[in-house]
Amino acid sequence: MKSEMTNTVLNLVLAVLVISGVFFALWTIQRTREFRELNPVAVQANAKLMMMQSFVNDVNAYNNQVKSPEITRMLQPLMTKPAAH
């Protein structure tokens, strides 16, 4: 009798582990597909961000030569701030 109860409990534990393994495998497949779909979008967004940062740096370099208060005012929110320690 005791071994039947142990066998039943172990079978239930095994069933839970198998079901959770299948669930996590399907979840991982879904997340991998989502990542593969979003990765090109992230690369494109990063390239545009780098292009805009380069443009802001060029405008800032030009402003250092010309010293325009209008350009300085427009660049103020765009300039990177040093990280707080």
List descriptors.
85 residues, mainly alpha, 2 helices
Report Rg. 29 Å
Count the DSSP helices.
2
| Portion in helices | over 70%
List low-pLDDT spans: none
Q: Describe the biggest sheet?
A: none
Distance between the termini: 66 Å
Derived structural class? mainly alpha
Descriptive report:
- The mean pLDDT is 90.
- The protein has one domain (2-75).
- It has helices at 2-66, 69-75.
- By secondary structure, the chain is an all-alpha fold.
- The longest helix is centred in the middle third of the chain and has 65 residues, at 2-66.
What are the SSEs and their pairings?
Blueprint (H helix, E strand, L loop, with lengths): L1 H65 L2 H7 L10
Concise structural overview:
The chain is mainly alpha-helical and 85 residues long.
